[in-house]
Amino acid sequence: MNYHFRQAEFSDASRIWIILQKAILRRKEDGSNxxxxxxxxxxxxxxxxxxxxxxxxxxxxxxxGYCAIxxxxxxxxxxxxxxxxxxxxxxxxHRVAISEKYLGKGLAKIMIEYIEDFALKNNIxxxxxxxxxxxxxxxxxxxxxxxxLCGEVYFRGSPRxxxxxxxxxxx
Length: 171
Known about the structure:
GO molecular function, one term: acyltransferase activity, transferring groups other than amino-acyl groups
Number of helices: 4
Organism: Flavobacterium soyangense
Largest sheet: 8 strands, mixed
Radius of gyration: 15 Å
Helix content: 25-40%
Number of strands: 8
Oligomer: single chain
Protein name: GNAT family N-acetyltransferase
Pfam families: Acetyltransf_1
Order of helices and strands: EHHEEEEHEHEE
CATH superfamily: Gcn5-related N-acetyltransferase (GNAT)
Domain N-acetyltransferase: 3-170
C-alpha cells in the first residue's frame, strides 16, 4: 500500500477526532478503562496540532491514523517505577489510533516505524511509550516491534506499562 506520514494541519482536526472517538469507543467495548475519563478530547487534538506534535498516517489523501510525537517532553517519565534503558534524548508517542475501516492491517506497527524514522532523522536513538495494562493490542505491538518493558508510569492516577526501544544508527 501507499502510505505516508506527515505533520497534521488544523484542517485535519475533525477527521482525527472522528478516528479518536471510535478508538475510545473500541477501548470501552474491549472492557478497558483507558481513554474513558474524557481524555483524549478534541481540545487535546487542537493543542497537539498547535504545538506541531500531531501526526497522521495517510493513504492517498485519506487520514487513516493519528498519533502525537513529543521530543524530550514527558514529565511523568521522570517518575518511572523501574529504569529506562537510556537517559539520553528521546521521542515519545501518545494517542495512537487507527481508523476503524483500516483495523487489522498492521497499521499501528507501520506508524510506529514512521515514528522511529522521525527519531533517527532527528539524531535521537530512543523511543519511549506507555499503555494501559489492558490494552492487549498495543502490548503485542510493543513486543513485536522490539520494545523493552522498563517499568510503570502513572497518568491521571492510573498505572501504565512503560516501554523503550533503543534505535541503531543507519549504516
